[in-house]
Amino acid sequence: MSWLPLSFGAPMVLWGLIALPVIWWLLRLTPPRPQTEVFPPLKILARVLRREETPQQSPWWLTLLRLLLAALVIAALAEPVWNPREKLPTGGAALALVIDNDWAAAPDWDKRVATAERLINDADQTGVPVVIAFTAEKPNAEIGPFDAAGALDKLRATKPRPIPTDRPAVFARVAEALKSLPGASVAVLADGLAAKDDEAAFRALLGENIGHVLWAVPDRIPAIGLTATENDVDGFRLTAIRAPGDPAPAQATAGAFDDKGRRIADATLTFGPGETVATGDMKVPFELRNDFSSVALDGERQAAAVRVLDESSKRRRVGLLSQTEADQAQPLLSPLYYIRRALSPFADLVEPSNADLADAIPQILDQKPAMIVMADIGTIPEQVRPRLTEWVDNGGTLLRFAGARMAAASGDDDLLPVRLRTGERNLGGALSWTTPQPVAEFPKTGPFGDLTPPNEVTVSRQVLAEPAPDIVDRTWANLADGTPLVTGLKKGKGTLVLFHITPEATWSNLPISGSFVEMLRRIVQLSHNQGSIAAPAGQAAAALAPYRMIDASGTLVPPTPDARPLTPAANAPVTLENPPGLYGSEAGVVAHNLLAADATFAPLARPAFSVPVTDVRYAFDEQQHLKGPLVAAALALLLIDTLAVFWMGGVFARRRRAAAATTAALALVGLCLFGAVDPARADDSKPGDYAAIAAVEKTRLAYVLTGVPGDDSISRAGLEGLTRFLVEKTALEPGEPAGVDIDKDELAFYPLIYWPIDPAAPMPDQAAIARIDAYMKQGGTVLFDTRDQYSTGLDAGSSSPATERLRDILANLNVPPLEPVPADHVLTKSFYILPEFPGRFNGSPLWVEASLDASNADNRPVRTGDGVTPIMITANDFAGAWAVDANGDPLLPTVPPDPDQRVYALRAGVNIVMYMLTGNYKSDQVHVPILLERLGQ
């Protein structure tokens, strides 16, 4: 039966099934218990006359039920397993688990953990220790050896990290640990991606001490990563990579998010068959592109699928160059005047210290600008031209303006977007047949496509471009006659832009219009910063604190405890101390991404092994142990068997008959009462009767409702805490505490009333005080609590507001003489032996009624007979110490903070309640010798 996915851990137990026929024979010989009947002679005789039955054996269905119960127990003891898996070879001196927990392991981390758990459980059955190491943790992390429980704890406590693996360092530590464990089995749970120095790392790990290797890699590497983002002229370009070896085409959707996590743009990246690189564009206005804070691939739950963008995409550094000295007397004629006014609100402007281009251009390039503006520079010195050309090819934007020098320059200039005619064109002059030309509609394919052309702008002079087949593609703005006004060209990663007019208002009034500012701003936004300026010699670059990190699942999270400040550098590595994310503050951040622009995914090559190798597949453990369900089914059958025996014994029938008889008797009594009582006088209850019945059903402690919400809630919580303590420690089970209004509620139901004194509460009127006086005369006790031990102290006779209020209340009561509780008073031993009565505070005595003959030692500790003091006074805040919440935890701290003080306070409450309910019964112990003598003992 190999087709059946079932196995047994103890198959020998199944031989117990042979005993089922014996069990069946025994059950057949054992009749059920005879059914008993309450003596109804006529009914029994009627049954005897009808037929006589004597049970000789169990019913067939009960026998079958018990046989099935026995079979289930035997099967459960055999430890059956459904869909069993084959045990992996984890023998030898130890099992070494080497697990990749980098960013590539994040999407299926749960499956990797389940695979590692299977290996650890198999090692536990063979009794070998486990060495467990993770390649994305610190190299000095503890790796064992552990027992199975310790290894499982470490495995479950480890999470994937958003960093690459560090196999050489971790493998070296594992190899060192295995030197003392020859013949160990090594399980490599890899992410499937190759890393630097893998060959040397595996050679160090799989040395001569290894007895067996278990190799686990994913079937395929589905991860897609973002390597670059570029804010081009016509859109935002993304570059993504995937691992080679996948012949099927694939598509990925990317979303751009702002700093608040809102999705504002999308792009689709398509991989052709066998392709490993895909690009996609987000065709959105540059205003939206400037709001991009991060870009992420949909459905990719790993850190490489997220790329954060820093502040370099929002404000650029712009260099300004001109060969004309500024005229301080006429600044409006300066070539750079209008450019400075237009760019300064949204760009950082830098200028050289002198006008010599041979020195000025290197000075500007050393500042690493995103864009350089040249105002009427005709010829660029040859010694600096290669460096300027390299800067443009690497992503710089060169913006040039025409003028007399450029019009007079001759020859080709590869740093212009178009080839120019020598000279200039004069529109509207004395010898010209033409008139100044307005600006036409901007081409929709250019960066100014959504701008409205300025109607007030005209151009009177310009430099002309030589006609060329691609002149239309390079034109960003035209005049009404079709001649170019602004041209642009992509060169390498950079851009060349030319305004065919001067930057001052001599050839056109465009520089003094609002459109000029908007056009310059668009060009600045298309530029790319060239990096940060290096720190001066001898001075280290400032480190930036972690701001927002990318976790292993690709989510932006707050900095982790391991994150440390980042020193910006060209190729700063991604490590555990510097994970990918944003570094800086709200004022500005620097992006630190996982993948470099030239990163690729290479599959991990399987090293050559000189020992036996077992391939392991990442999967969840699908086997199911059936012992628990079988035991549960056996218990259910046992319960059914028990109910069947009760039913056959007549238990349920007797209960039904007893219930029916009780119902009939109650109905008869009710009918008699209904017929004998006058319906008009049947209900003589009065308002408040039900409340009185509820009050006397159980002993209940009461507290005075003062009208101050905080005092009333603490009083109720305190009496609830004391009630719980009474239930736990004594045989008394009081009911819920009751809040009483001394103006109208009946007080005689309660043996003790707790009254917290608060000067903020209304002063009770004379009628209420008279009711309290009557309550005390009738045997009740009022416990007054001023709760002012640490403000005044009652025994010192001070006059705190609470004490003054208490004196006003007691002035209208018949208060007996008071004294602190003597050491031999019944209160000190009514339940617990207590020398003092603390509450939340400690130090104030508990005042009670003084003995009439306190000097008579023979009267102690009986003192005042069996009577109970009608009044008690304290300042220790009893309710504050007793108060607990719904979980039974204390609400208020004790002063001083001593846990034992709260216990003594609760014991004091128990003594007070017992004293209220039983008087001085403890004092009868002094009469024990006399009682024994009278009894003749």
From TrEMBL:
Q: Which residues form the DUF4159 domain?
A: 700-917
Its transmembrane ranges are: 6-27, 60-78, 630-651, 658-677
Q: Which domain of life is it from?
A: Bacteria
| Keyword Membrane included in the entry's annotation | yes
- Keywords from the named record: Membrane, Transmembrane, Transmembrane helix
Keyword Transmembrane helix attached: yes
Q: Which residues form the Aerotolerance regulator N-terminal domain?
A: 6-80
- Write the protein's name: DUF4159 domain-containing protein
Task: Write down the CDD domains for this protein, in alphabetical order.
Answer: A4_beta-galactosidase_middle_domain (cd03143)
